[in-house]
Amino acid sequence: MCLALSMRNRDHYFGRNLDYDKGYGQQVVITPRHHPFEFRHAGATDSHTAIIGTAAIVNGHPLYFEGANEDGLCIAGLLFSGSSRYNPPSGKKGDVASHEFIPWVLTQCSDTSEFLSIAEDLNITNEAFSVQLPPSPMHWMVSDKKRDLVVEQVSSGLNIHENPTCVLTNNPPFEYQMMNLNNYMGLSSGDVINSFSKKINLWNYSRGMGALGLPGDLSSQSRFVKAAFTASNSICNDSEEDSVTQFMHILKSAEQQKGCVRIGEGYEITQYSSCINADRGRMYFTTYGNSRISVVDMNKEDLDSDDPISFPMDDRQDFDELNACVKCGHGRRSPSCRP
Amino acid sequence: MCLALSMRNRDHYFGRNLDYDKGYGQQVVITPRHHPFEFRHAGATDSHTAIIGTAAIVNGHPLYFEGANEDGLCIAGLLFSGSSRYNPPSGKKGDVASHEFIPWVLTQCSDTSEFLSIAEDLNITNEAFSVQLPPSPMHWMVSDKKRDLVVEQVSSGLNIHENPTCVLTNNPPFEYQMMNLNNYMGLSSGDVINSFSKKINLWNYSRGMGALGLPGDLSSQSRFVKAAFTASNSICNDSEEDSVTQFMHILKSAEQQKGCVRIGEGYEITQYSSCINADRGRMYFTTYGNSRISVVDMNKEDLDSDDPISFPMDDRQDFDELNACVKCGHGRRSPSCRP
Amino acid sequence: MCLALSMRNRDHYFGRNLDYDKGYGQQVVITPRHHPFEFRHAGATDSHTAIIGTAAIVNGHPLYFEGANEDGLCIAGLLFSGSSRYNPPSGKKGDVASHEFIPWVLTQCSDTSEFLSIAEDLNITNEAFSVQLPPSPMHWMVSDKKRDLVVEQVSSGLNIHENPTCVLTNNPPFEYQMMNLNNYMGLSSGDVINSFSKKINLWNYSRGMGALGLPGDLSSQSRFVKAAFTASNSICNDSEEDSVTQFMHILKSAEQQKGCVRIGEGYEITQYSSCINADRGRMYFTTYGNSRISVVDMNKEDLDSDDPISFPMDDRQDFDELNACVKCGHGRRSPSCRP
Amino acid sequence: MCLALSMRNRDHYFGRNLDYDKGYGQQVVITPRHHPFEFRHAGATDSHTAIIGTAAIVNGHPLYFEGANEDGLCIAGLLFSGSSRYNPPSGKKGDVASHEFIPWVLTQCSDTSEFLSIAEDLNITNEAFSVQLPPSPMHWMVSDKKRDLVVEQVSSGLNIHENPTCVLTNNPPFEYQMMNLNNYMGLSSGDVINSFSKKINLWNYSRGMGALGLPGDLSSQSRFVKAAFTASNSICNDSEEDSVTQFMHILKSAEQQKGCVRIGEGYEITQYSSCINADRGRMYFTTYGNSRISVVDMNKEDLDSDDPISFPMDDRQDFDELNACVKCGHGRRSPSCRP
After folding, report:
1. How many domains would you assign to chain D?
2. What is the tens place of the pLDDT at every residue in D207-227?
3. What is the CATH number of the domain that holds D158?
4. CB–CB of D262 and C190 under 8 A?
5. Model's pTM, two decimal places?
6. Of D165, D192, D232, which is closest to A186 when you measure between CB atoms?
7. Which of D131, D160, D157, D136 is nearest to D147 (CA)?
8. Which residue in D230, D241, D257, D313 has the most chain C C-beta atoms within 10 A of its own C-beta, making it the best mutation to test that interface?
9. Three-state SS at A234
10. Does any domain span residue C230?
11. Chains A & B: contacts with CB separation below 8 Å
């Protein structure tokens, strides 16, 4: 269903796959510093750090799927069906409706430590955005330059876990994902040494056999293990181009291809993959239909405004036609034609 | 190491991942109809169907990794270390050096039936292209609109198999891949029905659990199973854009991410992914570094010439900067700026 | 490490494998009705239902590994290293030291409902039997004719779970075992129908392929799945002989063979396998060294006594020499010699 | 379906599981030296080494499932459905009907070298024992003190393989079993070292996790891997009692429990497990119904006779009633009653 990912090179990168059978009207949305947020219980604010991320805009309000603020704090919400439990409001300071949780965090905190301090009496409530939009069962990954946290409110209460894997998917709850990960601890990116038998001559018939046993189906626990392995073994230098490129490759290691996850008459696919450079306020993305990486830089917009600034996520494949240049009759990238 | 893929929609698409720890100087190469080929045993020709595909050009000769001719016949060579056996020349008509095999097929045949007829006394020889370029151990997938064949010369002789899976990777030999595939026949793209126990209440805690057991490591047998499943369950409409997009998604389901397959000090990655529309002579590709799909159309070049026409496979990420347009100060795709 | 099993035919059968690298001086021990038990917190009793099971006798006290009382209530303790948490005594009624837990249950309760009622303020304490015998980390399966319960005291508190699987092994905690079991829900005892691909002809090359994916290693989670599958699919008629035979086959499906689980210089093996007919007070067992099933019937002893009655679990293989009868010179089972 | 096993301690042990949904009237059968064998093509003999093994006797002829001769050469036949190919007689010396193959080998050869020399023009024919008993598709394991061979006649011809695993099951052909075994080379009997990630703290939550990934279902390829692992890691001292005990434990690691392999209305089970001490002419066995090990010693019979000597394989559980001694009122093994 979904995959969140955090990667630390010279900068901190944070993003996700959104996997679903249909789009939600998602766009890249920059919320400037003076956009008014009115929380159910925490009051209103029209002066806060700006936010960049992916959101649907409903009645002028950005409903974020994931985002980062100017301080580099990041958060993504992922489906957690059958496991999350939302409560009625408690009347205490920490009440927050699930659909408000992302802006509630991003407008109040600059890093995970501040988040932990306001999360002390956190109570995620069962209040709906509107009659048409009942609460979705979610859990969240909250990240900054130093660490990743997982926030899950389940039947036994609220749990906030340190997440050393840099990834999060969906079910089962995080402790189960981590317990299951123990079963894969012997996997590696290298060759295999024969420990099966001293008498039988066995053969690395392929490169990559050290990771035999890694799951490749698209269920949420399997994608957690696959993405955790890919992220843990990832090699990448520090440049922005290489970091974004590698981040996208890790996300795509757990991508959902059309046809492989059937739901009734439809199919769940990776609607989009996003990567936010949280240190620089740039958001990169691809869609299922367009593998070219687009980028939006929040610092190129006027952040001291109030209305959300949105950019559509075009799903049409943006081919680079190498020998179809209208100017010269040869490829667009041929030396004679390069601008 | 590698993955070949064949997909039949309105048109026939054929391509591959090339997985290796370094590039080979690969380019998109169109070989026009009058390029002279001089085969070791089969004589010379300078009048043949044109070829488009990926090749390294060595001393003016295109050494193809995969390609298609104007009739739509396609062939890709994939590493087959430790399994392929090349023989000394037999003196018969079917002698062909391994590095010549791709042009030998593409210049003589218009479809797989013709290939089968010339393959009757096929003998792949152990002759080198040059002292510097000894033969690489290879097997091949040969495809047309109707079917896919696998060509393997092993210690027991030459084998040509019908390939119903539409994919080929590397070791083990094809019969082993097919035998192993039986172990996955119960996997599906749907939910799971509890057949484990009537007394225990079990739960599809995630979508996609019907394919639990599908391998996700990057060894060649696991990539064969993963890609065969993805290809077999793929859903895609007939348009060129959607077909190429889906073809690339299938290839990327078995992609190798940097760091996940360690070789000595280096790492094997998917250097490029290619997709040829064999009916229309168009080749699409991405590289590890550039996820934007480039396309070369052989029909836009003069095919009645002789020198190979080549296009570099640029590995730099070609970002689409949505809000950095130099002309208008807004995103390049903003309505005010769209050409 | 261990496996507990419950099976309901005409009678209720309960037993276990004890897996360890050395024996504990275990014997079959019948504790008669007037053996004095003195609990740390719950007081003393010398009038209770008799108990049959496996125990080490230390200073005249039977320390049970598993057992059943005359009412048919059964309980087995299994290692739970790194997961169980024992507390200091709370001063409430439910304080019980871990080594006392089995007789505390069996002397007070006649079925699982009574157990649940006394377990309301259960607090398993960290008190040792003696300086030489510190508490072992354990969890327990408590069973009667109607249901199986799992009792685990972990860091988050005491959990009592209904157990629909009829089996229990060791780590991880029971919720994790059950969550993991969902991953196997598609397995079956039958053949497989090809749902992988409509285009590829796949083959049930062996009987039993419906359970492909079932784990066969000897770690505790794998043995849980393997034994749960075997127990869930087990077919057996109602006779005592067939029931005991089948019960032992299920236990042996998750047996530990010498050499397969290395611990330092030693090897963990299935020291013994036991099967109690809880309705009739008979205990059957085999040992690693002796596959012949021995049986002890508690009703053949004087249960109105006080001293434990014990039977050694002989580990020497008791071969039946078919053609070495000392009396007749032929096999012991030859018609001429049968008693 | 079946499992053959060879084990070399001080003596050589050889045996098998016979897995089927019904018995074949199998008995322990000793064929003395002067029993007349009349082969279809190889002529007749009534002077040969004696044989001990499991057989059905049909019209006075022992049809062996497995056996050993006085020289210690052993052979077992195992089902090989869909893979074996029997030919019409060739007219050459090596013609032998499949049902004759075991006595043909055991009456002519004293070790595997002699077998290889007579196997040079071996042609296993499609001739039936009788109209009622058409040929069964089989392959064979032939063993002596030094090595194990696998004999398979498939569509591509006769293959004789060295077998370093000491085990054989059924499909797929032996090269496939060995290729597949490479996938398990990283498994071990020890603990696991975390090579998955340097950043994630993972845990050996159970002993035995080094073999995670070992299959536990009852299909023939999975049983091959499971039994090969168990045999390869088996630890056993040299005594006859311990060797036979351990041999049986290895066989039972791949046993088929009733209910786990459904065939139409029936269930395939391990009908019997046998273990021949090939150096001493003793055959040990258990049945599904009787776990006590029986033993027949061929040297206690008159081997210079001609009629087969047979011993039924009693399937009734031979319980040892420890406290039901008719003489003393206590257990049969109580000190006061031991003979």
Report:
1. 1
2. 999 999 999 999 999 999 999
3. 3.60.60.10
4. yes
5. 0.96
6. D192
7. D160
8. D257
9. coil
10. no
11. 276
